[in-house]
Structures are given as C-alpha cells and as structure tokens.
C-alpha cells in the first residue's frame, strides 16, 4: 500500500507560486539586472559609494581673469586708458569682449572667456604689465582659483618632500604649491595644509591617499573659506567695503590679542568679535560656535531705502 501526503491550503499556495516559473540555473551576471539597465549581477551599488569622489571636487572656472590694482586714488581711469590705447585685443587672439567689473576687494577684474582663455589672459597680463611698468602703486596680476588640501599622517623626516609629491600628482610646478606650517597630531605624526590651483587640487584628491616617503598619507579636500574682513574680523565682506567702527587689524584669531599670529598662539580661545558684542567668546573667531561665522551674519547692513539714503 502506498501512502499519500495530504497538503493543506497554505502548502498548495506555496507550491503554486514556488520556483516552478524560475529557471533551474540563473546565468552568471543576472539577466534581470541587465534588462532594467542595472549593474552586472542585478546588485545595487552601496549608497554613498559613487558620491565619495564628487564631494571632493569643486567645479573649475571656465573663464580666466586679469586684475589691475591701483593704490592711488582715481588712477584706474588713466591706467586703463593707456592700456586700451596700446593694446589691440584681436592681436592677442581675444575676439570676444572681456567682462570688466570691480571685485569685493576693490580691484579691477578683466574676465576672458572662450577656448584657451588662460593662454589669452596670460598674454594680456604680460602686455598690460609692459605698458604700466615703473608706475608706483600699480600692479597687474593673473589670479588663479585655489583650494586647500589637508595632508596628514606623515612622519617628521619627510616634510620637505610634501610639496614635490603634491606637485607631481597635481601636474603643476612645485612653486605653485604653498605649504603651511607643519603641525604634530595626537598620534605623533604630522599634518599640514597646502594651497594649490583648483585644477591641481581636484587631480590630487581623486584618491584620498598619497605616498610620501615610505608610507601613505591621508588627503582631505577642505571646504572653501567664507569671505572675511581682516579689519573688523566679521564675515560677509572685505576691508574694501568695511563700514564697521571696530578696527581689529592685527588681532589674533585665537585669543584676540595683538602682537602675534594665530598659528603659534597657545592662549585660551577668545573671540574678539563676540567679546565686543557681549556674547560668549570662548571660541575661535569664525569657528562653528561663533555667531559671526554663521551664514548671513557679519554682512554689511544694507542702506535704509525708506529714508532715501543713497550709498556713497
């Protein structure tokens, strides 16, 4: 006699929707993932894996600039007139008219766009420097957008090799890399902040490690520093447009006293801005606990339009 197994309703339902509709063996790679345009194997990438690189990269400018600084009053018009009379832009390959404006620091900015804008800006800066050579208080520069990179985890004996290692990885001349003071971190190794052109910084931080000497060092792309006035130490404007009555020029960013720099200061924290306003001041000026470092704080107040005041 053969015995038959009685299957209940739940068992029948599971048997009807089981693996009967699936193939015996799934091909390597997973056709399901490929059919919907997903990755091989139908697996989703780990969250945040694709954003690690993009968070470190800042968009490089598509234009190049030449700046004219004139320390004497009312001198911009004369110097620019001499440059326009002596320089023909088309001879330098500049067909599109440049954009001219005054920056937040009060200098004249000549912005060139289009292909090979950097080469054209270099040529224009050289020509302007020739025309304005020997004039007191007049300076022509070719500013380049820079970025800060923190390099940490290297030992003391290879501090001189940091500049060359960063320049080699970023594809720039070592003179374009500025190295700050070397500091010791709690684990006994060293840390330094380097400043270099933005394009080079993006290339350097594509990987978060760099080999210096015998071992690797950690790379960190630092956030862009907010606009700060070196006269009143508040945020949102520069000394050229500062209207504050408080002159804190030369005051230490750590303790608020004068006569030294914040790099070597070991005094207790005291924010000069918050102390002047009667607020808690046991922090560094512009740091996260500082109200003056918050977005929108410390900006030059707008003129009162109701009173009909016209800005100077």
Automatic annotation (TrEMBL):
PROSITE patterns reported in the protein's UniProt record: ZF_CCHC
GO molecular function terms noted in the UniProt entry: nucleic acid binding; zinc ion binding
Keywords annotated in UniProt: Metal-binding, Zinc, Zinc-finger
Annotated ranges, domain CCHC-type: 252-265
Gene3D superfamilies: Zinc finger, CCHC-type
Region (Disordered): 1-32, 281-312
Residue ranges, compositional bias (Low complexity): 287-303
Pfam families to which the protein is assigned, alphabetical: zf-CCHC
Keyword Metal-binding tagged: yes
Keyword Chaperone annotated: no
Protein's name in the database: Uncharacterized protein LOC112468828
Organism: Temnothorax curvispinosus
């Amino acid at each position: 006699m053969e015995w038959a197994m009685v299957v209940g309703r739940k068992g029948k339902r599971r048997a009807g929707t089981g693996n009967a509709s699936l193939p015996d063996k799934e091909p390597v790679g997973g056709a399901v993932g490929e059919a919907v345009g997903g990755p091989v194997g139908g697996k989703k990438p780990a969250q945040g894996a694709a954003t690690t690189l993009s968070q470190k990269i800042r968009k490089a400018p598509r234009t190049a600039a030449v700046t004219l600084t004139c320390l004497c009053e009312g001198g911009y018009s004369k110097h620019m007139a001499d440059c326009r009379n002596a320089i023909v832009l088309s001879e330098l390959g500049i067909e599109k008219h440049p954009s001219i404006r005054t920056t937040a620091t009060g200098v004249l900015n000549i912005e060139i766009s289009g292909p090979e804008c950097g080469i054209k800006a270099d040529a224009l800066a050289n020509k302007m420097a020739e025309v304005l050579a020997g004039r007191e208080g007049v300076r022509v520069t070719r500013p380049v957008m820079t970025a800060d990179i923190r390099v940490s985890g290297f030992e003391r004996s290879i501090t001189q090799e940091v500049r060359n290692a960063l320049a080699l990885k970023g594809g720039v001349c070592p003179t374009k890399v500025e190295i700050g003071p070397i500091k010791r971190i709690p684990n006994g190794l060293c840390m330094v902040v380097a400043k270099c052109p933005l394009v080079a910084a993006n290339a350097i931080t594509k990987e978060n490690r760099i080999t210096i000497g015998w071992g690797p060092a950690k790379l960190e792309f630092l956030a862009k520093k907010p606009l700060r006035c070196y006269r009143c130490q508040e945020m949102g404007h520069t000394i050229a447009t500062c209207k504050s009555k408080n002159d804190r020029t030369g005051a230490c960013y750590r303790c608020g006293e004068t006569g030294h720099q914040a790099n070597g200061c070991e005094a207790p924290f005291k924010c000069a801005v918050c102390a002047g306003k009667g607020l808690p001041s046991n922090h560094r000026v512009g740091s996260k606990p500082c109200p003056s470092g918050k977005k929108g704080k410390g900006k030059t107040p707008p003129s009162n339009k109701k009173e009909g005041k016209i800005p100077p």
